[in-house]
Amino acid sequence: MRTSTYLLLALSTITLAQPTLQSREPAKDDQYDWAPSLEKYYKAVGKHVADIRDTKNSLTSIPCDLTKAVQPIAPTPLPPPTDRTLTHVAIGRGTQNYTCKGKAATDAPAATGAVASLYNASCFASSFPDLLALGPTAALQFPYPTSDKASLPPANLGISGKHYFVDSTTPTFDLDTKAAQLGCVLTRKVTGTPAPPLTAGQAPIGYGNVAWLLLESKAGTTGTIQLIYRLNTAGGSPPPTCADQPEVFQQDYSAEYWFYS
Questions:
Q1: What is the rounded distance in angstroms from the CA atom of residue 7 to the CA atom of residue 14?
Q2: How far apart are CA 163 and CA 173, in angstroms?
Q3: pLDDT of 7 above 70
Q4: Residues 6 or more apart in contact with residue 74 via CB below 8 angstroms
Q5: Which terminal residue of the chain, N or C, has fewer Cβ atoms less than 10 Å from its own Cβ?
Q6: CA separation (Å) from 91 to 4, 44, 74, 207?
Q7: Side-chain half-sphere of 261: how many Cα atoms within 13 Å?
Q8: Residues whose CB is less than 8 angstroms from the CB of residue 221 and which lie 6 or more positions away in sequence, other chains included
Q9: Are 144 and 1 in contact (CB under 8 A)?
């Protein structure tokens, strides 16, 4: 079965599982009192499924062509992936990690890296960019999947790799998996740009969204991936100071990751 078929089946499953969304004030015990980000996501899914049914497309007619994917651009743009080929898009879901050890209450927490699972979103990037853009914020409405076999809600994306740090300056992306087979990428930060400001009516997540980044591969990398972009971040920022914080703590986050060879 083609990847695009799995994608449409996932969309259909989400739509069948979701409640009918109504314009009303939910009751206190309403089982489907969705967060606004989830309601927005499910409405977008419903529209896509309805459009597909209206045009009588077959399950295998949904394209999964990364040449059609358009990378999000920050208000202060990151350098473009010139002369590179997009090979994978993933949604990462995990934690940004911090420490206040040895710091005064007025000091800012120090970043110590991140840990996340990466979930294959390549077909969403090419066919449903609006769902991809909503994905990181929607993913934070669910507990972090603890099993490598678990899919990422609400899109039911399958796992394609892991993200972690091998030392304090080396973000690592292990895509040397059965699902991806793209190697293990050791990276260094090239540059970053602040996450876009919240739009009207958009609620902040925790202490805010971590920056968008451009990373490049370095010695020790296997495979052909050379550039990685972290985009459309949701959550992950630390509190402004160490006041009332433990020595070590985490902040939930999600983001899009775009991989170029």
A1: 11
A2: 5
A3: no
A4: 193, 194, 195, 196, 212, 231
A5: N
A6: 17, 18, 17, 20
A7: 11
A8: 183, 184, 185, 186, 187
A9: no
**Confidence at residue 197, expressed as pLDDT on a 0 to 100 scale:** 86
pTM: 0.87
Task: Please choose, from the candidates 77, 69, 57, 90, the residue with its C-alpha nearest in 3D space to the C-alpha of residue 173.
Answer: 90
**Contact 234/137 with Cβ under 8 angstroms?**
yes
Distance of CA 241 to the CA centre of its chain: 26
- Output b/e per residue, 181-190; b: 16+ Cβ within 10 A: ebbbbbbeee
User: Within 13 Å, how many C-alpha atoms sit on residue 14's CB side?
Assistant: 27
pLDDT in tens, 122-146: 999 999 999 999 999 999 999 888 8
The total number of residues shown for the chain amounts to 261
For 147-178, what is each residue's pLDDT tens digit? 888 899 998 999 999 999 999 999 999 999 88
CA distances to 19, 188, 213 from 83, rounded to whole Å, are 45, 19, 19
- What is the rounded distance in angstroms from the CA atom of residue 251 to the CA atom of residue 206? 8
**pLDDT for residue 17:** 39
Residue 140, both tokens: 């934070």
Amino acid at 87: T
